[in-house]
Amino acid sequence: MTPAEVVGVWRAKKGRKFPSTLLITNFPVHSGWVQPDVSQYFVFNGESKAYLKTMGVPDHLVMVTGMPVDPVFRRYREHRGPTKMKKTRTQQATPHRSTNWEVAWD
User: What InterPro entries does this protein map onto (predicted)?
Assistant: First the structure.
């Protein structure tokens, strides 16, 4: 069970009503995250948003916010120097496929 499913079951058992938001970081998003009565979904990219839409989640409930990254990683990058990133495969709005990145420090 995903945390979203656990919250949904608990809310149903207890008859509780409260706002529920989900930050989804799975690659790719799966149907276990789609639950009734979710107030807002936060996802890392447009592909995830498109996939949620195919599962019936209204567009206005999904916000693309990017992947949350701890600032400690930024400090590491500043120490090591700039990165060189190269996209190795591109997919448009296909949640069942991923986009791969090669990252290297100078």
Answer: Diacylglyc_glucosyltr_N
